[in-house]
Amino acid sequence: MSTIARALRPALRKGTGLTSSLRATPRSFNLARISTSLLQQQQNPRPLSTTPSCRNADMTELLPTPITHFSEVETAMRETVGKFASDMILPKVRDMDEAETMDKAIVEQLFEQGLMGVEIPEEYGGAGMNFTAAIIGIEELARVDPSVSVLVDVHNTLVNTAVVKYGSTELKKKYLPKLATETVGSFCLSEPISGSDAFALKTKAEETADGFKISGSKMWITNSMEADFFVVFANLNPDKGYKGITAFVVEKGAKGFTIAKKEKKLGIRASSTCVINFDDVEIPKENLLGDRGQGYKYAIGLLNEGRIGIAAQMTGLALGAFENAARYVWNDRKQFGQYVGEFQGMQHQLAQSYVEIAAARALVYNAARKKEAGEDFVKDAAMAKLYASQVAGKVSGLAVEWMGGMGFVREGLAEKFFRDSKIGAIYEGTSNIQLNTIARLLQKEYAA
Ligand SMILES: Cc1cc2nc3c(=O)[nH]c(=O)nc-3n(C[C@H](O)[C@H](O)[C@H](O)COP(=O)(O)OP(=O)(O)OC[C@H]3O[C@@H](n4cnc5c(N)ncnc54)[C@H](O)[C@@H]3O)c2cc1C
């Protein structure tokens, strides 16, 4: 049981001053294991909240509320992760970026906080929280470090969800407790030959007497230096084309599994991105994830959800870049006898940027709520990711300019946010791919 849960549980039960009591305790940023039962215990869930506790309520009797209105548990997530990020991650951000390495102690703390098992049910050692809570955590982390944020995002929204949704009972019992407490996961779909055209992948799986044999290469795999658990997509029946694609679980250390190359990147440099080779890697038959030939469907579903996570990473990044610069222009830097943020030319840019961040956040939380409500959210997720990454790029770029030379040097965080923002338009489907999805769905809606 993580210390987060212990800190929050009594406060939430009593419905007392959660925020202030958390601030008062040194370990108060420990949040994650707020159980499903806790969610259900909340006396007054927000109207139209789509958390499991009121999913079945008669929605016609409920009053609509603002999209960014969080439940008590979600608010606690926001405040405690924000505090954890500024107390524990912020002091290390610059060094991790320069070293292009994720600090091991931070990974351990993420597990301790319960942030690596946000949606994993309590019976498997996770926090048993809702999807929006995970999205809030990802956004708060990105406000301080988008590299830590993507580590948590991939692990929660792609890897954990794959096992929770498609894993057999044996796989869940074996791996979910580890994924919640100690084992980082990676999601291996892309290959040198297949990026946007993901299902053109060439990695093959073969059925053997005891299980399966996997051979091929994966590229661009996030978390691969830290991970011990890999969800791998390989084609078990190439004659069937993409309908042969199947998902497997591979553990680091399996014979023939090697991390071949660590990429040196423009941004999110503390997040590891590697090439992985599978040379006849043998895995037991229990490591089949879900059903044969369903891998492409699983990947599509998981990436649709994952895109909301990346969108949240981008809104968090945009907010972080904005706040960092806003503090500087309104408190630190004077020219012509006044703070540079007081010139109207600056104020209008700051105001415009804040509006765009708010619009992106509305798309993100609307997509998350629709997913939780069991509604079709594919277009919403694509719109959120597309727009949030555009806003992140624009605002973090302007923030560098607002800070002048101080924005350009590698002492502060402005230039790092700008570099980090570029990835939002690339991974989990490029911006063109999001536009393709949006246009395809619009055409379905409007074509006669
Ligand atoms: C840092 C990083 C981390 C990553 N992490 C992971 C991970 O953990 N797991 C994983 O499986 N993958 C991961 N990826 C891979 C990522 O998802 C792919 O890079 C992405 O899908 C794009 O593929 P590509 O790089 O091959 O670009 P390409 O597909 O070669 O695209 C090149 C250009 O062509 C455009 N284009 C391609 N097809 C179309 C089309 N039909 N219409 C219009 N334009 C098109 C694209 O928009 C892009 O501008 C990661 C990548 C990076 C850079």
UniProtKB/TrEMBL annotation:
Domain Acyl-CoA dehydrogenase/oxidase N-terminal: 72-182
Acyl-CoA dehydrogenase/oxidase C-terminal domain residues: 293-441
Keyword Lipid metabolism: yes
Pathway stated in the Swiss-Prot or TrEMBL entry: Amino-acid degradation; L-isoleucine degradation; Lipid metabolism; mitochondrial fatty acid beta-oxidation
EC number: 1.3.8.5
Annotated GO biological process: carboxylic acid catabolic process; fatty acid metabolic process
GO cellular component: mitochondrial matrix
Cofactor: FAD
Molecular-function GO term, any one: short-chain 2-methyl fatty acyl-CoA dehydrogenase activity
Catalytic activity: valproyl-CoA + oxidized [electron-transfer flavoprotein] + H(+) = (2E)-2-propylpent-2-enoyl-CoA + reduced [electron-transfer flavoprotein]; 2-methylbutanoyl-CoA + oxidized [electron-transfer flavoprotein] + H(+) = (2E)-2-methylbut-2-enoyl-CoA + reduced [electron-transfer flavoprotein]; (2S)-2-methylbutanoyl-CoA + oxidized [electron-transfer flavoprotein] + H(+) = (2E)-2-methylbut-2-enoyl-CoA + reduced [electron-transfer flavoprotein]; 2-methylpropanoyl-CoA + oxidized [electron-transfer flavoprotein] + H(+) = 2-methylpropenoyl-CoA + reduced [electron-transfer flavoprotein]
Keywords recorded for this protein, A-Z: Acetylation, FAD, Fatty acid metabolism, Flavoprotein, Lipid metabolism, Mitochondrion, Oxidoreductase, Phosphoprotein, Transit peptide
Predominant location category: mitochondrion
Subcellular location: Mitochondrion matrix
Similarity remark: Belongs to the acyl-CoA dehydrogenase family.
Subunit structure of this chain's protein: Homotetramer.
Protein name per its UniProtKB record: Short/branched chain specific acyl-CoA dehydrogenase, mitochondrial
